[in-house]
């Protein structure tokens, strides 16, 4: 299910951050590769984004995928 949110934090040195969903659920992890796969340049904190929360391959919870800038 596609959700909208805001990039809350992004650590450019480590290549990851978190998105705060508009629906009030807990923050979702996002990796730099999700931005690269979507063709989105440098992540900017505070930017509005649409995403799909998918299960992390390592079993650590949800992570954002299929990103689109709003």
TrEMBL record:
Any one GO BP annotation for this protein: regulation of mRNA stability
GO annotation, cellular component aspect: cytosol
Domain of life, per lineage: Bacteria
Presence of keyword Phosphoprotein: yes
Gene3D superfamilies per the UniProt record, alphabetical: Nucleic acid-binding proteins (2.40.50.140)
Keyword vocabulary terms for this entry: Cytoplasm, Phosphoprotein
Protein name: CSD domain-containing protein
Organism: Roseibium aggregatum
Organism phylogeny: Bacteria, Pseudomonadati, Pseudomonadota, Alphaproteobacteria, Hyphomicrobiales
Gene coding for it: cspA_3
């Amino acid at each position: 299910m596609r959700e909208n949110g805001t990039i809350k934090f992004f650590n450019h040195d480590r290549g990851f951050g978190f998105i705060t969903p508009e629906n009030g659920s807990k923050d979702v992890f996002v990796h730099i590769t999700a931005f690269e796969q979507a063709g989105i340049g440098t992540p900017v904190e505070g930017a509005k984004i649409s995403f799909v929360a998918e299960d992390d391959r390592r079993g650590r919870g949800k992570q954002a995928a299929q990103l689109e800038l709003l």
